[in-house]
Amino acid sequence: MISLRPILRASCARSVKMTPTSAMRLFATPRPFSTVPLAYDLHEPAKPIADNKTSPIIVMHGLFGSKKNNRTISKVLARDLGRSVYAVDLRNHGESPHDHRHDYTAMAADVADFIHQHDLKEPTLIGHSMGAKTAMALALSHPNLIQNIVSVDNAPIDARIESDFARYIQGMKKIDEASISRQAEADKILEPYEKSLVIRQFLLGNLHRPDSNNNVQKFRVPLNIIGKALDHLGDFPFKNPNEVRFLKPALFVRGTTSKYVPDEVIPIIGQFFPKFELVDIEAGHWVISEKPEEFRQAVVSFLEPKE
Q: Quick check: keyword ATP-binding in the entry (predicted)?
């Protein structure tokens, strides 16, 4: 099998065409794409076990999230494990650049580029939901690049994205059209599309003022790009575990009241990730925010050096 490093290390100015037959087998949709440089926050421990380039942790958010959502857990893991934690914004989210392509092959390539650009050695990938599939895709496409992964409430399967997300985009577009200046106005517009205040606050966290001389707030996320990507954002780029596996440790954390990782997909997880561990936490899909202490314990137990 050919090395994918030249593909994954492509600069953001260069278009990458995955034409080799073996590369086409690895990814379901071998379309041309360019990588983008990812915005990040670096959380360094008070008592580091190594420099911030060695065995760092890269934390990746889910759909409509950003690095700021992972600020608290990143600081806690840096403290408890003595490892530097890079919380990144995936493409089309937060402060990272926008790109017309939004799928797991491209997002995994962005993270691989990030690892190379920052000269990181044997990082751990932690991803929630969309970030989890990004972590899994990178682990399978280039296992030598990383040490292990933590997948939070997602699995290496094709699955339909819940219709809630399409509804959220409709409401968010209404807000952009209304040229609101206060978050309370935005919340009132979004309420018919989502009754949960917590979820509305999460979505409205994407608002910002693009013009410092104007109070009008707009969404950072490119709603048209994300909207077009929704139909395929539940897909996973690898279909056949007989062709590619990640033979290093992997932790899968799932919420017991979430539908993203049903019992019937556990054998598939084991086929792609033979050394996986499964931890169930009594929570919904938003495991990290719902049960942060239980999640911290699970990750620390998994990542602590074994005697």
A: no
